[in-house]
Amino acid sequence: REKGLSHYQGRALSRPERHGREGGGRMRQAIRVLVVMLALGALAMLPWKELRRRHAIVTDVRVKGVRYLDAARVRRAAGVVEGQDLLSLDLAAVRRRVQADPRVANATVRHHGLRGIEIEVRERVPALVVTTGEPIEVDSTGVLLEPLQRGVVADVPLLTGVHSSDLEPGARIRSEEMKRGLAWAAVLSDNALRLSGQVSELDVSESRTTRLVLMNGIRVVGPAWPVSLRQLSGLRATLLDLQRKGMMPGEVDVRIPNQVIVRDTQPTELVSVDQPHSI
Question: What percent of the chain has pLDDT over 70?
Answer without folding.
Answer: 78
